[in-house]
Design a protein that fits this description.
Layout (H helix, E strand, L loop, with lengths): L3 H18 L21 E2 L2 H5 L20 E3 L4 E10 L4 E5 L8 E5 L3 E8 L12 H4 L41 E3 L25 E2 L11 E7 L7 E6 L6 H6 L3 E7 L1 H8 L3 E11 L25 H5 L40 E5 L2 E2 L15 E4 L4 E8 L8 E7 L2 E5 L1 E6 L2 E2 L10 E3 L13 E7 L6 E6 L14 E8 L22 H4 L8 E11 H7 L17 E10 L22 E4 L5 E10 L5 E5 L4 E3 L12 E2 L1 E4 L17 E10 L4 E7 L2 H5 L3 E7 L2
Parallel strand pairs: 2-5, 3-6, 5-11, 12-16, 15-24, 25-28, 27-35
Antiparallel strand pairs: 1-8, 3-4, 6-9, 7-10, 10-11, 12-13, 13-14, 16-22, 17-18, 17-23, 19-20, 19-21, 19-22, 23-24, 25-26, 28-33, 29-32, 29-34, 30-31, 30-33, 34-35
Length: 707
């Protein structure tokens, strides 16, 4: 379970008195610091920059109260956009502002073309010495706006276990950067580089790194992304990726959609079929740090038979039986995995609900007794006979979704098959690259969309007198996870003049859509290297209690004993690079050494198999930058059952043994096949895309070298 927020209720009490005792007026817009792990060897900005006049902080627009379609920038060719990072003190929102637009625009770029994004950070920096950023640190009422202790670690040998090391403190400093999630572009500077690049607040006076040539000022950086000619057309997205503050900056609004277009998109527009981009985000549930008030009352099973239940957590979306489950590395300590399963220890129900959802910026209503009345649900209309491609990105920091379309007609509600057009930006194809639709019976098996994942599907307007709901069913995270309840996202009703419904099987929507054979040809089929990585999490107090320290453990004044640390550790590889006896289980920290090195050996590409094991009692969302992978967990050769993804849900370990101690059994797992090419040379990251977990250590760095 993600225990951090529950523990924060205690932490807030401990720090309330010293904070309240201060008599100095504090402007939250002017309290900034630097990230503690990035100062070594850094320079400072010139006095001329630090003393020059700065523009006011750009103010975010008020969030919408109803559903809104998102504005777009660009089309089927090159695209250029200027964005500003702004803030609204009343709503605690950050935002990507573009001229004349109320929300982060959908960026549209053609296959084989270039996307250019110039970002200026308008936030002010006048309080560097505080080494903290109150607007970001305290977002959601977490009470984190105080200095975090930093300590030096010197653990010794832990005998039969991997040495455990706790996470460093990562303080919010108001810097930002940009990640274009899923695009097959370079990880080098000025492109999709997230480890070193930083867009500093205006009037920044703290340490800075070396500026890349695309950074004209500390507060302004221009990213240029060149898409290859065989790039798949589909839905991608952009968001901030500064380690330690990615969760809060994304939840506060720094996220938007990207649509890569090809000739098929132009054809569909020509026949009157448009797309509707849906950006789902999450924010902390007001007043919900701990307690039963955070929980959603289960809905009546007789009324909501189609809702998810515990069986869904065990029902992987595979028709073929997977190979036998791997055995968890015995050196990974299992005693404290995921903490206690206090909210449903013998089921998959999960713990408390911590987040509410927004759709295109508008709050998604909730009702503890079921779904809210139609008058409160976000809504849109479609013309009778109209078809649209709904492009849904789960841009939430921490929430899983299970989308389904429910037709309500003559008092009867029926879950419709989901007619999937693409997943994670890549269209569904046969083995030869020819595009097709995939029909998924989501009434029987959930279609899970993990944080950062995308799904594109066809929506037909409901007939006269009927209505169509877009819902997300309840997702069960394992007993150690947080609750993801069912929600009604959007109500669709018919209105206006009828239009041509097109081909009965929607085959006309695929006309002029290029084959993906050129892209598929770049993916190797035989893996030359096998790797095993393990997802783990430990309470900080447990970590320090079992670690054998060379010079004695840090004192309790040097760390937060209620903190949970998250880990992703490579424990085995067939290339001889992993030495288990020297491998430490430690969260991500900014160090020159990568966690994984991929050698091309002078070739254009190499293919590897990564076995991702989950030793915890909650599901996770594995993501790697720059590339897609193929899910080969099952024995099936059906391409629809071996999808190309860039995010995948890793099942939780089954709970066995003593519930109080939380022993898992064999790990949950997925097996992924991925190909690295010369276009990937450089350094990038892989991580859990539950951003709370990423910020607290569940991330690693991969280096691709040409040799």
């Amino acid at each position: 379970m993600s225990l951090r927020r529950i523990a924060l209720a205690i932490g807030t009490v401990l720090i309330a008195t010293p904070l309240a005792a201060s008599t100095d007026p504090v402007d939250p817009l002017t309290i900034w610091g630097h990230i503690c792990t990035s100062i070594d060897g850094q320079g400072r900005v010139s006095q001329a920059w630090a003393s020059k006049a700065v523009l006011p902080v750009a103010t975010c627009h008020a969030p919408p109260t109803g559903y809104q379609s998102l504005a777009s920038v660009g089309g089927g060719g090159d695209a250029r956009v200027n964005l500003e990072i702004g803030y609204d003190a009343d709503t605690q929102r950050l935002c990507f502002l573009a001229t004349g637009l109320a929300a982060a625009p959908v960026l549209r770029v053609g296959v084989g073309h270039t996307l250019s994004v110039r970002i200026r950070n308008s936030l002010h920096d006048t309080g560097h010495a505080s080494q903290k950023n109150c607007p970001i640190d305290s977002f959601g009422g977490e009470g984190l706006c105080f200095p975090k202790p930093v300590f030096g670690e010197a653990p010794g040998t832990d005998g039969p276990f991997y040495p455990l090391m706790a996470n460093e403190a990562h303080m919010s400093d108001g810097t930002s950067n940009l990640h274009v999630h899923g695009l097959f572009v370079s990880p080098q500077a000025c492109s999709d580089e997230v480890l070193d690049s930083a867009i500093y607040p205006a009037n920044w006076v703290g340490p800075v790194g070396a500026f890349p040539p695309c950074q004209s000022e500390p507060d302004t950086l221009t990213y240029t992304y060149t898409l290859p000619a065989d790039h798949p057309a589909g839905l991608y997205w952009y968001h901030t990726h500064r380690h330690g503050q990615a969760e809060h900056q994304t939840q506060m609004g720094l996220a938007g959609a990207i649509v890569v277009e090809d000739a098929g998109d132009a054809w569909r527009r020509a026949i009157g079929v448009t797309d509707e981009v849906l950006v789902v985000t999450d924010t902390p549930k007001t007043g919900c740090l701990v307690g039963v008030s955070c929980d959603v009352v289960p809905q009546d099973a007789g009324v909501r038979k189609r809702q998810a239940n515990a069986a869904y957590a065990r029902a992987a979306a595979r028709d073929a039986a997977p190979t036998s489950a791997p055995v968890l590395d015995p050196r990974i300590d299992q005693v404290d995995q995921a903490g206690e399963c206090a909210q449903g220890a013998t089921t998959d129900a999960g713990g408390i609900e911590l987040w509410t959802l927004e759709l295109n910026g508008a709050p998604v209503p909730e009702d503890l007794s079921g779904f809210p009345p139609d008058s409160e649900v976000l809504s849109k209309t479609m013309q009778p006979g109209q078809r649209q491609i709904f492009r849904m990105v789960n841009a939430s920091a921490n929430s899983f979704l299970a989308p389904q379309l429910v037709l309500s007609q003559n008092g009867v509600e029926t879950v419709q098959p989901l007619e999937v057009f693409a997943r994670d930006g890549v269209g569904l194809t046969n083995a030869q690259g020819r595009r097709h639709f995939g029909l998924f019976d989501v009434a029987k098996t959930q279609f899970i969309v993990a944080p950062a994942a995308r799904v594109e599907f066809v929506v037909h307007a409901p007939p006269a007198g009927a209505k169509l709901y877009l819902e997300t069913a309840q997702v069960n995270p394992g007993c150690g996870g947080n609750l993801y309840p069912a929600r009604r996202l959007l109500l669709i009703t018919p209105a206006g003049l009828p239009v041509d419904p097109g081909a009965e099987d929607d085959s006309d929507l695929l006309e002029h859509t290029p084959s993906l054979a050129p892209y598929l040809a770049t993916l190797g089929t035989t893996a030359s290297v096998q790797r095993t990585l393990v997802l783990a999490e430990y309470g900080r107090d447990f970590t320090y209690g079992v670690t054998k320290w060379l010079t004695g453990p840090p004192t309790t004044a040097q760390y937060d004993p209620t903190q949970t640390d998250f880990y992703i550790t490579e424990v085995a590889s067939t290339d001889g690079e992993v030495q288990p006896q020297l491998t430490a289980v430690k969260p991500f920290v900014h160090t020159p050494a990568p966690q994984v090195v991929v050698h091309l050996h002078g070739q254009q590409s190499v293919t590897e198999d990564w076995l991702i094991e989950n030793s915890t009692l909650e599901i996770h969302a594995f993501h790697i930058h720059q590339i897609h992978f193929r899910d080969v967990s099952a024995a099936s050769e059906n391409p629809d059952l071996q999808p190309l993804l860039d995010v995948i849900t890793v099942p939780a370990a089954p709970l066995i043994g003593d519930v109080a101690t939380g022993y898992p059994g064999a790990p949950g797992w997925v097996k992924l096949r991925m190909t690295f090419t010369t276009a990937d040379i450089g350094e990038f990251v892989f991580h859990c895309h539950i951003l709370e977990h990423e910020d607290n250590g569940m991330m690693g760095k991969v280096r691709v070298v040409a040799d």
